[in-house]
Amino acid sequence: MKKLRCFLVMFGLLLLGAVAVSAAEPYKNLTLQELKAMLDRREPLVIVDSRPSAEYREAHIIGAVSIPYNDMAANPALLHYPTSDKIVFYCNGFS
């Protein structure tokens, strides 16, 4: 259920134009290996941890910012990044 909610929030924000993964690339799912390769190449990324803040405090990807999906849904302005930035979202999936 959480994974579905997370997906719906992210998809809704994309439809509203609040988030663009990149001006040149459409939305897509990344594998862990693809993300690691992007990080290894030091590509400019904004990594958003959309899990609850307590889970972010326990462990997160280095450099990720915490913007829980409930907060994004209530205030899309939290995603104030330029549309040219690649934005990677991750959450905890099903629980």
UniProtKB/TrEMBL annotation:
<dbReference type="InterPro" id="IPR036873">
    <property type="entry name" value="Rhodanese-like_dom_sf"/>
</dbReference>
<protein>
    <submittedName>
        <fullName>Rhodanese-like domain-containing protein</fullName>
    </submittedName>
</protein>
<feature type="signal peptide">
    <location>
        <begin position="1"/>
        <end position="23"/>
    </location>
</feature>
<keyword id="KW-0732">Signal</keyword>
<dbReference type="Pfam" id="PF00581">
    <property type="entry name" value="Rhodanese"/>
</dbReference>
<dbReference type="InterPro" id="IPR001763">
    <property type="entry name" value="Rhodanese-like_dom"/>
</dbReference>
<feature type="domain" description="Rhodanese">
    <location>
        <begin position="41"/>
        <end position="93"/>
    </location>
</feature>
